[in-house]
Amino acid sequence: MARRRLGNRRSLGYAATENICTVHDLHATMLHQLGIRHDAFSVKFQGLDAKLTGVEGAKVMEGILG
Description:
The protein has one helix spanning about 25-35; strands spanning about 45, 50. With about 70 residues, it is α+β, with helices and mostly antiparallel strands. The chain has a two-stranded antiparallel sheet. Strand 1 (about 45) and strand 2 (about 50) form a beta hairpin. The relative contact order is 0.22. The mean pLDDT is about 80.
């Protein structure tokens, strides 16, 4: 299986410099692949409705789906 690389990173360290994918974006992409709308999916956690994709908003990463 060939490795797929998404974006570039700095020469010193591992921080991405372009095409940054956050954990929330990764969760949104996985839920999209399962056919679940990530913005409507929430679970009860300590009495509150929590979203896997956070409250800031997340985007489906189309670049890693191809």
